[in-house]
Specification:
Layout: H1 2-10, E1 14-16, E2 33-35, H2 40-53, H3 69-79
Parallel strand pairs: 1-2
Helix pairs in contact: 2-3
Length: 81
């Protein structure tokens, strides 16, 4: 996260896939950092909506590891949809 703070402080524009879908890179919102990968929360909503509306699925299972930041964020995203 120190790189994020440095970029914001020095006004370096960062558009990167390396930001991943974890919100740590953008929250609080950063003026000069733009992740190009969707946030896990947004991706979970989009996938769930697609499965339900287009594939008519009513039961959706997801396998993940909750011992990582990515797993915890994904769990929160999927469990609220």
């Amino acid at each position: 996260m120190s790189v994020r703070d440095y970029y914001s402080k020095t006004r370096v524009l960062m558009v990167s896939m390396g930001c991943s879908g974890v919100t740590n890179w953008i929250k609080p919102l950063q003026k000069y950092i733009f992740p190009i990968y969707p946030l896990y929360v947004d991706e979970a909503f989009a996938l769930t909506r697609y499965f339900h509306e287009n594939m008519k699925l009513t039961k959706i299972a997801m396998f993940l590891t909750r011992t990582t930041t990515m797993g915890n964020r994904a769990w929160r995203a999927w469990s609220t949809t």
